[in-house]
Amino acid sequence: MENIEYAKGKAGLLAVLTKKTIGREEEIYNFFREHTTWAKVNFYSPTGHGAEKEEELMLNQDEASKMMIKLYELWKKDDSPLELRPMLENVRSFFTGFPVACDFSAVSCYKILGADTKGDIYPCSKAMNFPYLKMGNIEEGLENLVGSDIHKMPLKRYVSLKEKSGNPWLHLSSGGCPIEALSHKGNYMESTTYSGEVRNSLFERIKKDMQNENTRKHLEKKVGLIR
Ligand code: SF4
User: Which residue, 79, 102, 139, 163, has most beta carbons within 10 Å?
Assistant: First the structure.
């Protein structure tokens, strides 16, 4: 709290949504509103040490959808300058036609590389726990690593999900973070737990809002595309 106060509203804040935050959406939102203009919500994902608490913390799909929508509605009707992500990015992607946040976009994911202190290169810093995702070493020259099979995996995954999932919102969700899918489901090529129904419930709500001219304009302003 001291650090947050010290930053005087300039620090970004992140909340992890779990079973323990059910019913506390307003409290979370108001805390953000009071202390920052940049905030993000993530769902708890059972990876690394956090995996031990899966039963205690992980939201089911219905709980996660309801929480997402409640937070979206709070942000939508709020006139403060608070930027709540991923809702802001999700709405913006409706106007622009493509997502930019990496966990909603296979292309953004493809544009990021991670390097460890030895100069070993991975398709993301999150991939470093998976030795078989090592693309090579910086000494080999980035031009020889970029475009390799491992580097192209996010794009291949997107195409594969598109062929088999039939998800009408895949272009705005891209199956979520592939490393999260790998950590939780053991398969890089699968969608994450929340990237289907849960994200889609929010996309459907945004779609409905977009059909109302006044709400559409209000949202366009909120995401900074018009004044
Ligand atoms: S692997 Fe996950 S965290 Fe890394 S860039 Fe892709 S979506 Fe983002």
Answer: 102
